[in-house]
Design goal:
The protein has 255 residues and is mostly helical. It has one domain. It contains seven helices and no strands. The longest helix has 43 residues. It is elongated.
Length: 255
């Protein structure tokens, strides 16, 4: 029995280091990934998903983890995983930013606010969970598997990314996501602006009319109707952006 155990350990030992380093990259990304890394998902489930992704990608990347040291490569893999996860988490944050802007522009910010784990207006909760469900339906798990494998070319195993490159990439990503958020919220901003201008004109023409009792309910009703019409387009554009980010997670590559 002892000899059999020693043979088994000798067989497994060469694969332990690649498996551990691969798991560290996947687990770090899993902590912040969209859908898989949500706070509402139990920690044990996220750990099981990290192990499942590790088992899927390990045969394709095991030969990338050469060498015998462990401490520095482990830290480098953790940083690489966090960068991968954050590159996709920014897309969700952009959608939440767009929903917050839209809700503030159309008087929907106080409707059922705080119903989710994160303090979002109802519109943000609706769009966020709808977008995550749409991403899963579109095969997010398959795309993530391909991304984890391809990430070893973008972020080589055991090597720390340069701080200057990460800073430039992060700045470009935040600017890109902020622009996307304002673009997605533009219909609500324009609708709110036009409605308030119209109310101001009517109020100047008829000062005795209590516009607050008419304008606020009408704005809320119109905002809900606009949400029903614009949500499919917003989700479609967001999914396109997510797919582009999955294909090129570090697209604004610093030169």
């Amino acid at each position: 029995m002892i000899d059999l155990t020693n043979q088994l350990l000798a067989t497994i030992e060469p694969h332990l280091r690649p498996a551990l380093l691969t798991f560290l990259r996947v687990a770090a990304a899993m902590a912040v990934l969209p859908a898989f890394g949500e706070q509402a998902i139990p920690l044990r489930l996220r750990l099981g998903l990290a192990l499942a992704f590790t088992a899927l990608i390990l045969p394709a990347v095991a030969d990338r983890h050469s060498g015998s040291d462990l401490l520095l490569p482990a830290a480098a893999e953790t940083v690489a995983g966090l960068l991968i996860g954050l590159s996709l988490r920014l897309m969700v944050m952009g959608l939440q930013m767009a929903a917050t802007i839209a809700a503030q522009s159309t008087s929907l910010s106080q409707l059922f606010a705080g119903a989710a784990v994160e303090p979002l207006p109802a519109l943000g909760t609706l769009l966020t969970w709808a977008a995550l469900a749409l991403a899963m339906q579109a095969g997010l798990h398959v795309k993530l598997t391909a991304l984890f494998i391809a990430s070893h070319d973008l972020l080589p195993a055991g090597r720390f990314p340069l701080g200057e490159d990460v800073a430039r990439w992060g700045t470009a990503q935040v600017a890109q996501v902020t622009g996307l958020a304002f673009s997605l919220a533009l219909p609500f901003v324009l609708a709110g602006l036009l409605w308030n201008v119209a109310l101001g004109a009517v109020n100047r023409a008829m000062p005795q009319l209590m516009m607050a009792f008419i304008g606020a309910p009408a704005l809320a009703l119109g905002s809900l109707a606009l949400t029903a019409m614009a949500a499919p387009t917003i989700l479609f554009l967001w999914l396109q952006g997510l797919d582009a980010q999955l294909a090129r997670p570090f697209s604004p590559v610093p030169k």
